[in-house]
Amino acid sequence: MDRETADDIKRFVKILFEEVGQKIQLLAEGQQGIVQKIEVIEQGIKALDEGLRYEIVETRALVKLSFSELDRRLSTLEHNYAEIEQRLSRLERAS
């Protein structure tokens, strides 16, 4: 192999290495972009999770409050019904 052919091969290999290096750099930049997007998605999921947890706690509190209010109202109705039955019973006996 003569000197000119060896120089051509060196230049060709150098160009190939530069192209490979550029492609590796592009891949690394692309990977970094993907990592950043994943981090943004993870933050969004975390925010949603926290929001859902808060909503669940609030919903449970409201359900508990509503249940307590309904229980109180039902107890009042049961008490009133018992009083009405007693009055009716006394009226029936008096007649």
Main attributes of the structure:
95 residues, mainly alpha, 1 helix, 97% helix
Return residue spans where pLDDT drops below 50 for at least 5 consecutive residues: none
Number of helices: 1
The helix/strand class is mainly alpha
Distance between the termini: 134 Å
Taking the sheet with the most strands, its summary is: none
Which term fits the overall shape? Answer: rod-shaped
β-strand amount:
under 5%
- Please trace the helix and strand order, writing H or E for each element: H
Helix content: over 70%
What is Rg? 40 Å
**Overall pLDDT:** 94
By DSSP, the count of extended strands is 0
List the topology elements:
Elements lengths: L2 H92 L1
Structural commentary:
This protein has 95 residues and is mainly α. It has 1 helix and no strands. The chain is rod-shaped, with a radius of gyration of 40 Å. The protein starts with a helix and ends with a helix. 0% of the residues are buried.
Summarize the structure.
This protein is mostly helical and 95 residues long. 97% of the residues lie in helices and 0% in strands.
